């Protein structure tokens, strides 16, 4: 009990706290690499990190789950370009209205700020729902570039091989002619 209290005091006041006790599990690692324990399995589901709850599932929470009113239709065939433009125009209008409110009725600015915040959250939600498509398109583009580079490298190798064969032919013709 006394050592636990002592270690807690050291860890609370030391600039560099002592290593965790499981470092002893690796004492023979330099001689036998198989002596180290297996790493823990990957986390699945929800977990807590620095006081926040996170999940390993890659799911975009809905606006309702976040407590934000959705300003665009809940249609599966949503025209993202049209809705983003619409929200952008609405944002511009609300910013102009905020300027008017700040000049004429400064006490009512909080309502306008809330509306602008809601529009921004809707814009971000729409953009975040396009992230998987963006990632796929980026990967396709990278793979197409790699294929193009490899084809170019193959053509370069073929050209250099032909040059080398030509040089060898010329060298053999020169040797045969002597």
Automatic annotation (TrEMBL):
Keywords: Activator, Nucleus, Transcription, Transcription regulation
InterPro entries linked: Med7/Med21-like, Mediatior_Med7, Mediatior_Med7_sf
Top-rank lineage group of the source organism: Eukaryota
Pfam families, alphabetized: Med7
GO MF: transcription coregulator activity
Keyword Transcription (UniProt): yes
GO cellular component terms attached to this protein's record: mediator complex
Biological processes per GO annotation: regulation of transcription by RNA polymerase II
Quaternary structure and interacting proteins, as annotated: Component of the Mediator complex.
Stated family: Belongs to the Mediator complex subunit 7 family.
Role according to the record: Component of the Mediator complex, a coactivator involved in the regulated transcription of nearly all RNA polymerase II-dependent genes. Mediator functions as a bridge to convey information from gene-specific regulatory proteins to the basal RNA polymerase II transcription machinery.
Protein name as catalogued: Mediator of RNA polymerase II transcription subunit 7
Origin species: Arabidopsis thaliana (Mouse-ear cress)
